[in-house]
Amino acid sequence: MKSETCFGKMYGQPLSEYYTEEDAQSAAEYSREHFGNDLTPYNCAKCGLWHLSPRYRQTPSKKCHCCTGRDGLSKDAYRSKREARQRADIIYLEHGISLRAYKCKYGSGWHLTKSDY
Ligand SMILES: [Zn+2]
Ligand SMILES: [Zn+2]
Prior knowledge:
By secondary structure, the protein is of the alpha+beta class. The protein has 2 domains: 2-55, no CATH class; 59-114, no CATH class. Helix content is 26%, strand content 36%. The chain has a two-stranded antiparallel sheet. The protein has a two-stranded antiparallel sheet with strand order 3-4. A two-stranded antiparallel ribbon has the order 5-6. The longest helix has 15 residues, at 21-35. The termini are far apart. The relative contact order is 0.15. Bound molecules: zinc ion (2 copies). One zinc ion is lined by residues 3, 5-6, 44, 46-47, 49, 51.
């Protein structure tokens, strides 16, 4: 099933949608066996169904001891701009919040911040 409400951020293609986590999980396993893709199901906040996304959510991050977010907590630091952007893509897909990557001024890596444009 292709979604009529949800589209991939990169190419604007309709996302595949699944009614249950089990369906999404078995599609992910099929894709791994046949195409070598590493996908993980997530519950979409927009349509309430399940989609697959690349397993970027395991982007390694550590806490930066110098920078705090607006909530006063230590910010997550990513090792590279690419990994920060991968994380931002997932957050965008799952929550519809668009984030911008910027370099930590204390040299701890890369952070994400809400873009104001
Ligand atoms: Zn959706
Ligand atoms: Zn920092």
